[in-house]
Design a protein that fits this description.
The structure holds two protein chains of two kinds. Chain A is an alpha+beta fold. In chain A, about 35% of the residues lie in helices and about 20% in strands. In chain B, β1 (about 90-95) and β2 form a beta hairpin.
Chain lengths: ~625, ~375
């Protein structure tokens, strides 16, 4: 490249650059010109319009909070609704001496120490310019008394607000959950989902249970009111109004009366109960005992009540249906029997001889049957009726953990059921892989033995067991358990039925299911482990008892409930469905420290089925207290 | 050294006309901030500190000879890219976007660094290949631009991505990208708009929809636009007077010390005030173009031109969004909005402009 060409290029380049620089200047001028034009338009031509919007009476856009949707049971019984009431509210930034003001207020309206504590907590969580509630649900008299003295309290006002009310209170706390004040975490999530605009003015949001899961349905759409405000910010005239749209009504599959009866049937016992319609997965009753009063949370719980609930040995805040994980005990046996049939490891007629214990080949360790001396010759039918442990120790070992894992997974064990509530736990269905991961150990045959009778590593939630029982009752076709049947649109009144989602399909000869069902029917008749369960019932009941050990027994030690601390007694299980031929209801009952399933859990299930199938209301519910029931006469498993 | 000599030493590499224009804008910033923050002197002092710190950085950069400046291009760019990748992998999520990187002592936003890093790198690249520029070089330069832009757009921070694209595009334009290619790109951009629309996040689409009909979401994002327009429009010809803006003082304006500070200014000083503000911006931009025209090397011409045009773009985008002709993208009003990071980035750019202006004699001689 010679010098002349380079020079020429250079000049050309400078020329090109200058040209583009001029274009750039023109571009910058154009941008400034556009802005100038816009300013002339807004500030000179349309000044009058914006003037009226801003200067004389300023326009304020006010949100109108929608009414939260109702929650009804399957028969239209109200389970959650709103009522309007008066609250006394303080704006801290407008009050000079907060403590003195509250003291003065206490002379007019009843303000308890816990109201003060709650107010302090609210104050710590919010901005000073927000109005904060000091008392809710004022009586008419209190309202009148304060109104007369209001001039003395700048920054304190009475507001009409909607309150959420749960008529069944603690009986439905675990099911419905509760709403609570929107906190920072909720705000962040709302912002992330772009829902913050719709929550302007809303103070409460679903925190747990159905209130949380169906928040989007229940909340509704916030309305907008454009109002003129004077220079002090008071509304003087409404300019336009977009009414709010109330939240949708949830129609549950729950039967409130059934829920109530189930609750009462527990008496003072702790535990869980789930009733499911096997034909579609609709949950009919959802009980976790004890419950708690959800209204404590709605207004913001005070520290003392929280401590009391949280530290209680009864764990009232624990949702046992959803999150309680227990060994399934013998209730797993019908499923194990099906596994034996599925893999052709056992024929129905094949018998074993039960000496009262099982030993692994090449080992002297005795895995004991619950019955000393054994059950003699046992086939599959009898193994369920008498709940023979030895039969299932052997079956489990022959199947091997891999097949047990794969078959029981098919019934949903070890997996979340996907019910329409947050926070479900998945239980534990052990496998070789799991043990390797958890304990860095290989799986031993001895581990399999106890899995056969629902002990060892395996854990189930009452909900899982109920879902599996419903699947069994329905001949292997199971549905995702769900609590909401229909959503009723609040403005159009259109009812949108939620789809029943098929979740399980166990491919097995119907004759095999029949065998197991008949054996389970015999369980509830004389000779079975729950011999009293179907006594006097005009319909047929299939069931299975189970006990979940709370403390482990040493080899050779004997279980004697009367000598044990009450909280160390076994948990009692009873799973059942009825009528046997065309099941309409499947029930799972867990009674914590209830001892034997046939003694404490089965009567509760029976009351639930009697009401659901016959409409029979238990007369003068016999309260079964742990002290009164004591030890079951026969110690069976 | 006499006091006079010391003073001369200090101002030797400062460009006084540019400094005067900037100072006027920053003065407007402090005044408006006092009103916007409801007479909060602390806020004003804090902005004063921001300006002071940023000015020190400006002074250092202005005193750096140009070859030092060029030498920083690659390290800054590479560091910026690594940080952007780190953000994509381990960044903190806040408000649905992954923009911040926690480095223990502080959280940093690497996309800010790239506002300078990208044009710097591209100008450096063109300088390296000045002798024989082919289409291939433009493609490589475009890739240098698109890689960080794609990472930033994915965070998602569409506003910053677009602004960095703009500053990179200005480098390409000034470097002589052929008109035909630009025409082609323009057509391609129009054609790909529907595809872009579908790729956008919901909130981004929302903001664009709001632009056309803010009343649609009067409680949410449209609220900002409506209140901004009311503030500007009600200011009228002469404004409501300093400290008398009703929109401002009745809490109607959101983010009024940062992105929406122009609404406060505009409401209180009116159209006349706006004209003065535009004149100040024009003065600074004009001085930037003079420096660009006088710049002696290819690198400095590209750099100075891009910095000036980018500054003009920021001012336009912010005032455009407050007055309702552009969507709300979260760009501060340059030199006026409250905020340390943007002040620092801007003054670093101006430091480069000053260095370019005051070191060229040495290069020429």
């Amino acid at each position: 490249m010679n010098k002349r060409v380079e020079l020429k290029n250079h000049q050309q380049e400078i020329f090109n650059f200058r040209l583009r620089l001029f274009i750039s200047i023109g571009f910058a001028l154009l941008l400034l010109g556009i802005l100038l034009g816009r300013f002339v338009y807004l500030q000179a031509m349309r000044h009058g319009y914006y003037q009226t919007l801003a200067e004389k009476n300023r326009i304020s856009v006010m949100p109108i909070v929608p009414n939260r949707g109702l929650i009804l049971d399957r028969n239209g019984v109200v389970m959650a609704h709103n009522f309007s009431g008066y609250t006394l509210e303080i704006t801290p930034s407008k009050v000079a001496n907060l403590a003195a003001t509250i003291d003065d207020l206490a002379k007019l309206v009843d303000i308890e120490p816990r109201d003060r504590k709650r107010f302090k907590k609210l104050q710590a969580e919010s901005h000073n310019f927000e109005t904060l509630m000091i008392r809710s649900r004022l009586s008419d008299e209190e309202v009148a008394r304060f109104a007369a003295q209001q001039y003395r309290f700048p920054g304190v006002e009475i507001k009409a607000r909607l309150f959420r009310d749960y008529p069944y209170s603690d009986k439905t706390a675990h099911l419905l959950g509760y709403i609570g004040r929107i906190n920072q975490t909720d705000e962040d999530r709302l912002e992330e989902n772009n829902a913050d605009a719709n929550y302007r003015g809303t103070d409460y949001i679903g925190k747990t249970g159905l209130e949380q899961y169906y928040e989007n349905e229940l909340h509704g759409t916030t309305g907008i009111e454009q109002v003129e405000v004077d220079s002090a910010g008071r509304a003087v005239r409404i300019l336009s109004r977009t009414p709010p749209v109330s939240g949708n009504t949830l129609i549950l599959s729950i039967d409130a009366k059934l829920q109530d009866i189930a609750e009462q049937a527990f008496g003072d016992y702790r535990g869980a109960l789930v009733a499911i319609d096997p034909a579609n997965g609709e949950v009919l009753a959802f009980v976790s005992r004890p419950g708690y009063d959800p209204s404590l949370f709605v207004d913001g719980i005070d520290a003392d009540s929280w401590k009391e609930l949280n530290d209680s040995p009864d764990h009232p805040l624990n949702n046992r249906v959803l999150r309680g994980q227990y060994p399934s005990g013998s209730t797993i046996k019908p499923f194990m029997a099906l596994a034996g049939l599925f893999y052709n490891m056992r024929s129905p007629t094949q018998t074993i001889s039960d000496p009262g214990f099982y030993t692994l080949p090449g080992s002297s360790h005795h895995y004991r049957d619950w019955k000393k001396g054994g059950h003699g010759s046992v086939d599959m039918f009898k193994s369920i009726v008498v709940s023979c442990d030895t039969y299932y120790y052997g079956l489990a070992v022959e199947l091997g953990i891999d097949r047990i894992f794969s078959f029981l997974s098919g019934f949903g064990f070890g997996k979340k059921t996907g019910i329409d509530l947050e926070g479900e736990t998945s239980g534990l269905l052990p496998s070789q892989e799991w043990k390797q991961k958890r304990f860095k150990q290989k799986w031993y045959a001895g581990d399999t033995v106890s899995v056969g009778i629902g002990q060892g590593y395996s854990l189930v939630t009452p909900l899982q067991l109920a879902s599996a029982t419903a699947t069994l009752a329905n001949g292997g076709i199971g549905y995702r358990p769900h609590l909401v049947r229909e959503v009723k649109n609040s403005s159009t009144n259109e009812i949108h039925k939620l789809e029943n989602k098929a979740a399980f399909d166990i491919k097995l000869d119907p004759a095999n299911f029949d065998l197991i069902k008949r054996a389970m029917q015999a369980v509830t008749q004389p000779g079975g482990t729950a011999a009293q369960a179907s006594a006097g019932a005009p319909y047929t009941i299939a069931g299975k008892t189970g006990t979940a050990q709370v403390v482990a027994m040493k080899q050779g030690e004997k279980y004697d409930a009367s000598k044990m601390d009450e909280r160390h007694r076994d948990h009692a299980w009873f799973i059942a469905f009825a009528p046997v031929d065309k099941p309409k209801i499947a029930v799972v009952v867990l009674v914590e420290n209830g001892g034997h399933g046939g003694g404490t859990a089965a009567p509760i299930a029976r009351k639930v089925m009697d009401y659901y199938l016959l409409g029979k209301i238990p007369v003068a519910p016999k309260t079964t207290t742990p002290a009164a029931s004591g030890v079951p006469e026969v110690e069976v498993d | 050294m006499t006091r006079r000599q010391l003073w001369q030493r200090i101002v030797a590499h400062l460009d006084l006309p540019l400094l005067a224009g900037m100072s006027l804008l920053m003065l407007a910033s402090l005044l408006t901030l006092y009103s916007a923050s409801d007479h909060n002197l602390e806020r004003v002092m804090s902005q004063g500190m921001n300006i002071l710190v940023a000015f020190c950085c400006l002074w250092i950069v202005a005193n750096l000879p140009l070859h030092y400046l060029m030498r920083t291009a690659v390290p800054i760019y590479v560091a910026g890219m690594l940080l952007l990748i780190a953000v994509a992998l381990f960044g903190e999520i806040s408000h649905g976007a992954r923009r911040w990187l926690n480095i223990g002592v502080a959280t940093i936003q690497p996309s800010e660094l790239m506002k300078i890093g990208v044009p710097l790198m591209m100008a450096w690249y063109f300088e390296k290949h000045e002798a024989s520029l082919t289409l291939r070089n433009y493609v490589v330069a475009a890739l240098l631009l698109l890689m960080p832009v794609a990472l930033i757009a994915r965070q998602p921070d569409l506003g910053t991505a677009l602004l960095i694209s703009a500053s990179g595009f200005y480098v390409l334009f000034l470097a002589g990208l052929s008109w035909r290619v630009m025409g082609g790109l323009f057509v391609a951009a129009i054609a790909s708009a529907p595809v872009m629309w579908r790729m956008m996040h919901d909130y981004q689409r929302h903001r664009i929809e709001m632009l056309f009909d803010p009343s649609q979401d009067a409680l949410g994002k449209g609220y900002h636009t409506i209140q901004g327009m009311i503030a500007v429009g009600s200011g009228g010809i002469f404004g409501k007077g300093y400290l008398n803006g009703t929109q401002t003082h009745l809490d109607f304006l959101p983010e009024r010390t940062t992105d929406f500070i122009f609404a406060v200014y505009s409401e209180e000083f009116g159209m006349v005030g706006n004209l003065i503000l535009l004149a100040m911006y024009f003065f600074v931009i004009g001085r930037g173009f003079v420096i660009t025209a006088n710049a002696s090397t290819y690198f400095t011409r590209l750099m100075a031109g891009s910095i000036t045009l980018t500054f003009a773009t920021y001012a336009f985008v912010n005032m455009g969004m407050v007055s309702g002709i552009l969507p709300i993208v979260g760009v501060p009003l340059p030199l006026v909005s409250y905020g340390g990071t943007s002040m620092l980035t801007l003054l670093l750019g101006f430091g480069m402009l000053m260095s370019i202006q005051t070191h060229k004699k040495l290069v020429k001689s």
